[in-house]
Amino acid sequence: MEQMEKDLLKSIADISGFMPGSAFNLRKNGEGVERHSTPNVKIVTKEDKPGIDIIVKAYTSGESVHIPVILTESGINDMVYNDFYIEEGADVEIIAGCGIHNDGCDTSQHDGIHTFHIGKNAKVKYVEKHYGEGSGSGERILNPVTIIDMEEGSFAQMDMSQIKGVDSTMRKTEANLGPGAKLVINEKLMTHGHQQAHSDVTVNLNGEDSVVQIVSRSVGKDTSIQVFHPIAVGNNRSRAHIQCDSIIMDQAKISSIPEIAANHVDAQIIHEAAIGKINSDQLIKLQTLGLTSDEAEKEIVDGFLK
Amino acid sequence: MEQMEKDLLKSIADISGFMPGSAFNLRKNGEGVERHSTPNVKIVTKEDKPGIDIIVKAYTSGESVHIPVILTESGINDMVYNDFYIEEGADVEIIAGCGIHNDGCDTSQHDGIHTFHIGKNAKVKYVEKHYGEGSGSGERILNPVTIIDMEEGSFAQMDMSQIKGVDSTMRKTEANLGPGAKLVINEKLMTHGHQQAHSDVTVNLNGEDSVVQIVSRSVGKDTSIQVFHPIAVGNNRSRAHIQCDSIIMDQAKISSIPEIAANHVDAQIIHEAAIGKINSDQLIKLQTLGLTSDEAEKEIVDGFLK
């Protein structure tokens, strides 16, 4: 593996190569290049369309699955369907992510359609990082679609972040919660240059005592544009808490269009959103401690997105 | 004036008849029936369409204007355009409101299009109550449109409430704020039966240091449906705070779709919304004090909308 590829893997999945001993699938420039399953986690190529099925056996515990995607050639347009079958009572961590290195002048694009079938009482922690780099003028585009179907008593935590270098993203997330299911979504997003980011999240609280918590934090720099559209629909006795905080800098534009709907008398839904610039007291304090204004700004932004 | 008409006036404008000595316009069943101007507040019939111009002279102070509308016949469809010209430095209170008494089986509808031209440093307090009653099967419909253009340093407080008996309402409010303008909107809404209420509020913070505060409180009972869609757009150094709290009861459905957009680095926008049922601790406490469950519920709802 080239050093540049290793660096990409480090940025998106915190690994430096293949992961012997644990379930693993590396997709590079639109093709699978390395894979291994374990007795409890099977990774199988789809037969009808590009992509894989990841099957986690019932009551599996303590395993992790890495499924990174990297694009290193300019002009690649990759679309992939990944289905996760997390069987009853399994407890698993999934590390996904996509890194694009584009030194060319053509657009590199990866659209991942991820569908989670989370069984009764199963637990999933899903970590997804999106990252772009490269000296070319070619755009780096990521359009992830995430669908989450949660059965009774299941739990899912989705940590999804886009830290740097993605020119355009259209994120779509849809979750359907069964009885007692609990979903936590932590979204982090930073845009710079003339990047654009849209994020639509829809959560349907269908089951009794289902719970969702969404925390979205974003920073918009330069002339970038961000649009957030989280939707929580309480169709049963349920609770939802959505919190969106954004820091706006330079000539960036940020909008937030949440939608909360209670279709049941015992649905309890709370939404909070704030858009504002960096706290000037904090800036001054850090500068008093010896940081330049740029360093102080970086410190605050990093802390906010941590 | 009949007693029923007097009662309607009491409900919507807290008056029991004409208001000699102050500016006044009563519209009944689609026609003006009584009017008087004062030296500082002129009320003039529009020539191109139904409605009136209300002109408040510059630097007028301490005057109030009553412009109630009542519909007492079934089957009336009344549309009226009222323009308010509040000249520089004037300080005025405007009491509007519409009461419908419908004993028939035909729909009674009043659509008021109100446009406020608020001059430099002028101050307006606007109170609008909507109320319906009557034993007929005919619907009572109110579709108010309110447009507010605010010049430099002006202030407006809009207290708009729909307390009871309005079968269907589509409220549209749009405000454009100049430099240093401050707008406060207090919205109160109660729906019952199979009523429907939609409220769209758009505030454009165009001027430097413009400020808006919106507090919306609502209660949805029975099978009624409420939809709120407040929008705050910060196009300059400005501040917005939107707060929507709703109590949901019975089989009611409530949704809230706020939209906050910062198009300027010094725009600071905060939104909070909560939908939930009546606090059960409060209910139990009031029942312990001797109230029946219905009385306790009424007490809490009245307190919430006060």
TrEMBL record, chains A, B:
Pfam families: SUFBD_core (PF01458)
PANTHER family in the cross-refs: FES CLUSTER ASSEMBLY PROTEIN SUF, UPF0051 PROTEIN ABCI8, CHLOROPLASTIC-RELATED
Domain of life, source organism: Bacteria
Protein's UniProt name: SufD family Fe-S cluster assembly protein
Family statement drawn from the similarity comment of this UniProt entry: Belongs to the iron-sulfur cluster assembly SufBD family.
Species, as recorded: Amedibacillus hominis
InterPro entries for the chain: Fe-S_cluster_assembly_SufBD, SUF_FeS_clus_asmbl_SufBD_core, SUF_FeS_clus_asmbl_SufBD_sf
All residue ranges annotated as the SUF system FeS cluster assembly SufBD core domain in the record: 86-304
